[in-house]
Design brief:
mainly alpha; 396 residues
Length: 396
């Protein structure tokens, strides 16, 4: 790697890490004022948890030579990140940031009702047992899905579908909030807007950094990231306007994140015109899905399932439609790539099935041993005071 590529990858790694406090603010503004500290903590604590696991064994499981011929999981040759060489060490740092933010995404689904101690244990075990498996499948050259021919440019499957479906499994075990069905307006939309800005900014490192060089693919991913986010915001706003007769700031920023999620698997493989379609579709469809959660009876506090799982599915499937060899990918459906489109569909189903079942089993075991749910009294008081002895605001 030359100095320019090294500088870009160091910068991209820092940008992705910066997304974690951005996500904390994005989520923190959407909860009520008595659970702000708890939500910030649930996000930020994934940094030390995932870092330790990644260095000790996670990277080896994700990117070590596959065990056997099935492409399920890597071996332990890279334990402790020893003797990697400069180039692979830098790659491992960049991928570490992905491993950090993925469990943090799940936190928004359980806002206001999960014990912090249980969250720490869940996040650690999920980062050890589930994330490296899906990362190996989707990112490692000899992984199950990658070697078969499915593609995920920057984590639509590995990060967003994986975390979104895991969130659904966790909330199925955890159960709904005591006042589920009652509207829970954000306590601070300005805080959520600041978090959105940080996420959007960091996402350029997330997607363009996945080119692994300061090259044309990075430029394409950078442009498509901006286009996807913008059209996602616009698509959700149109949905609000047509269905509820008024546009909302919460809808606008939620749509931007949905667009960012959806363009992630496609960012370096599609044209800017395709990014327009992907972003707009994600913004509009995710807004519709979010409105159905009460009908289906799952309490996803901050719409992790509706934005990350659904957005990731949309982006991964549409990668199979719009990907082009002209942009370094395989030809998608509109270019005659029927087989590649089918592989993208199978990849989505495989990640959903594995992550849901594995997370559900993990959550069930933890619920029956240490318990996942905060007490009724803690929920009423608020987890900031009950779990942390801190308050986000002097005056409410």
């Amino acid at each position: 790697m030359d100095a320019g590529n090294i500088a870009w990858m160091v910068t991209a790694s820092a940008l992705v890490l910066f997304m974690v406090p951005g996500l904390a603010l994005f989520y923190g503004g959407m909860v009520n004022s008595k659970n702000v500290v708890n939500m910030l903590m649930m996000n930020v604590v994934t940094i030390p948890i995932a870092t330790i696991i990644w260095v000790v064994v996670g990277y080896s499981l994700a990117f070590g030579v596959t065990v056997g011929d099935a492409g399920i999981i890597g071996n332990l040759d890279k334990v402790g990140l020893a003797d990697l060489g400069d180039e692979e060490t830098l790659f491992s740092v960049f991928q570490m940031m992905f491993a950090i933010i993925t469990p943090a995404l799940i936190a928004g689904a359980v806002a206001g009702r999960m014990k912090f101690s249980s969250w720490v244990i869940f996040a650690a075990l999920w980062s050890l047992l589930i994330y490296p498996v899906v990362a190996h499948w989707g990112f490692a050259a000899d992984g199950l899905l990658y070697s078969w021919g499915a593609r995920d440019f920057a984590g639509g499957l590995v990060i967003h579908v994986n975390s979104g479906i895991a969130a659904l499994a966790l909330i199925r075990v955890l159960g709904p909030r005591q006042d589920f069905g009652i509207e829970h307006p954000p306590h601070s939309l300005p805080l959520t807007l600041i978090g959105t800005g940080i996420l959007w900014f960091g996402w350029f490192g997330f997607n363009a950094g996945s080119a692994l060089a300061a090259d044309g693919a990075a430029i394409t991913a950078l442009l498509n990231t901006q286009v996807g986010a913008s059209l996602g915001a616009f698509g959700w706003m149109v949905s609000d306007w047509t269905r509820h007769r008024r546009p909302t700031l919460l809808g606008l920023v939620s749509g931007a994140v949905a667009g960012l999620v959806a363009i992630t698997p496609a960012a370096g493989f599609v044209s800017p015109s395709a990014a327009i379609v992907i972003g707009a579709a994600a913004g509009y469809i995710c807004s519709l899905v979010v409105g159905l959660k009460e009908r289906f009876g799952y309490d996803d506090s901050l719409d992790v399932v509706g934005i990350h799982m659904v957005g990731g599915v949309i982006g991964s499937v549409l990668t199979g439609v719009f990907s082009s060899t002209a942009y370094g990918g395989f030809d998608g459906l509109i270019y005659g790539g029927v087989a590649f489109f089918g592989k993208q569909l199978v990849g989505v189903v495989a990640v959903i099935a594995f992550s849901f079942v594995a997370t559900w089993i993990l959550a069930k075991v933890l619920d029956r041993t240490i318990g996942l749910r905060a007490s009724r009294e803690d929920e009423i008081i608020g987890l900031d005071i009950a779990q942390h002895g801190e308050d986000a605001y002097w005056i409410r």
